Amino acid sequence: MRADWQRQLRQCHEQLGFRHVRFHDILSDDMGTLMDEQNHLLHSFFNADQICDFLLSIGMKPFVELSFMPSTLSSGSKTVFHYSANVTPPKDYTEWAKFVGRLIRHWVERYGIDEVSTWFFEVWNEPNLKAFWTGTRAGYFKLYRFTVQAIKEVDERLRVGGPATAKNEWITEFLTFCKKNKAPVDFVSTHHYPTDALGSVGEDTETQLARSKESILRKWARETHRKARGKPLYYTEWSSSSNPRDHLHDEPYTAAVIIKTMMEARGLVEGYSYWTFSDIFEENYMPATAFQGGFGLLTLQGVAKPSYRAFELLHRLGVEELPVKGKSETVDVWAITNRDAVTVLVTNHALPRHPIKAESVEVKLTGLTSPRNVYIERIDDEHANAKRLWIEMGKPALPTEREVEQLHVASQIVREPMPWKHSGKTLHIKFRMPPQGIAAITAELAPKRTGQNAKS
Questions:
Q1: Has residue 202 got a pLDDT over 70?
Q2: pTM of the model
Q3: CA distance 42 to 68
């Protein structure tokens, strides 16, 4: 409901193409959805409606996380985050179901079933972590059953899913429970971060990941896709790290993680929700520092981080991927067509504290007529990296208006002419990739072109 949050979300929708937004707390006491006044329940959906009204007004839709517990329905007093979100099970599951059903019915009456049926309803957040659910796994499954029944009683077309767990957990058990108890499941949702693996005991997990032929997030997504039994799979939280104060969130490293992860997730997930789009994020104390290591793609002042620019590159890609031959320890290459152009997307990425260096890359695009133009766009330490300029400024905690303008300029992706050679329907391109760097090389073609293959 903050004006600056709304402004940044509008920008992410318009520039990056984001279509849904997920957030905690829409049922908590600070939203005023349900209060007890002298043993009389008072429902107020005004604040929730304000949020939905805004999202729809800018062309976005809510991915509704049904959480957390209104205190008047709660079985205990355990809370999380500075806004004291109650994380205990309901003391009466029937009353919880009535409350949820009343809210959903209100939204259908307000926005129409054709609209609300395009939303998603996810039951709770990370119930496998004691920080977010003090009940048992069986208690969560019961919560899901009561919730989905209440929603489906409003209209069968409404989409409901779970278990919204951390670390890809409970998927098999959840679907088995739902099948046995005839509880509908329209989609499977879960969360993962690459740092989830670092808590294992034994050999350095990062070394194991670095030696693997596939990234850990793709490995987990592939396994979870199999466990989902054909249900649409949505990762409703993911990022380069689960640490809310990780300096890498502000640096090109995370941009490279985003490109690699998103490109590798194709065919495995229906939706991949990056956590989060903004550093305006109030789970904990929110430092008033421009580059604070927060989860966001944008700083408090709205300056785009390299991670934001990674999504900008992805949003401009085409829809047809070309086969790529070639391999490298740290360099990954994808080739994508978009109307009368081919874009070669390249990352040079390795996990922290593992070997990586600048690499010389040669790309040959075969089956092409001579291009009209070739240009390169970069994200790395020296390109689209506003934090570098911020450090040179002396790390001002609250940049002046003029400094913010300079940071905006430094954050931009710049198109630079790319040297190239063409012979025998093959386009030859050579360039260097700095560590944790991204490059997008686009060849603009004549309107007619034959099929292409890429070799790197």
A1: no
A2: 0.92
A3: 17
List all residues 6 or more positions away from 27 whose beta carbon is below 8 Å from its beta carbon. 33, 34, 66, 67, 68, 69, 70, 103
How far apart (Å, rounded) are the C-alpha atoms in residues 246 and 281? Answer: 14
Domains of the chain: 3-319 (3.20.20.80), 321-455 (2.60.40.1500)
254 vs 273: CA distance, rounded Å: 15
Which residues are catalytically annotated? Answer: 126, 237
Beta strand residue intervals within 140-209, DSSP E: 160-165, 187-192
Is the CB of residue 348 less than 8 Å from the CB of residue 435? yes
Return the pLDDT at 211: 52
Query: CB neighbours of 178 closer than 8 A, spacing ≥ 6?
Result: 141, 144, 145, 184, 185
Distance of CA 332 to the CA centre of its chain: 21
**363-421, pLDDT tens digit by residue?**
999 988 889 999 999 999 999 999 999 999 999 999 999 999 999 999 999 999 999 99
Please report which confidence band the pLDDT of residue 261 belongs to, taking 50, 70 and 90 as the band edges.
Answer: very high
Q: For residue 57, give every residue at least 6 positions away whose Cβ sits within 8 Å of its Cβ, in sequence order, or none.
A: none
Alpha-carbon dihedral of residues 312, 316, 319, 323, nearest 10 degrees?
A: -80
Least Cα distance to 244 among 281, 274, 299, 199 occurs for: 281
Backbone angles phi, psi at 147, to 5 degrees: -70, -50
CB 323 within 8 A of CB 454: yes
Q: What is the pLDDT of residues 4-32, one digit of tens each?
A: 999 999 999 999 999 999 999 999 998 99
Whole-number Å distance between alpha carbons of 199 and 24: 25
Q: Residues near 18 by Cβ (< 8 Å), separated by ≥ 6?
A: 9, 12, 60, 277
pLDDT category at 453 given cuts 50, 70, 90 is low
pLDDT value, residue 454: 58
Nearest Cα residue to 249 out of 296, 217, 194: 296
Peptide bond into 176 cis (omega under 30): no
Which residue in the block uniquely carries the two structure tokens 């002046």? 400
Instruction: Count how many residues are written for the chain.
Output: 456
User: Can you say whether the dihedral through the CA atoms of 132, 136, 138, 139 is positive or negative?
Assistant: negative
How many Cα atoms within 13 Å fall on the side-chain side of residue 101?
Answer: 17
**DSSP summary character for residue 446:** -
pLDDT for 282 equals 85
| Residue position matching structure tokens 């107020």 | 44
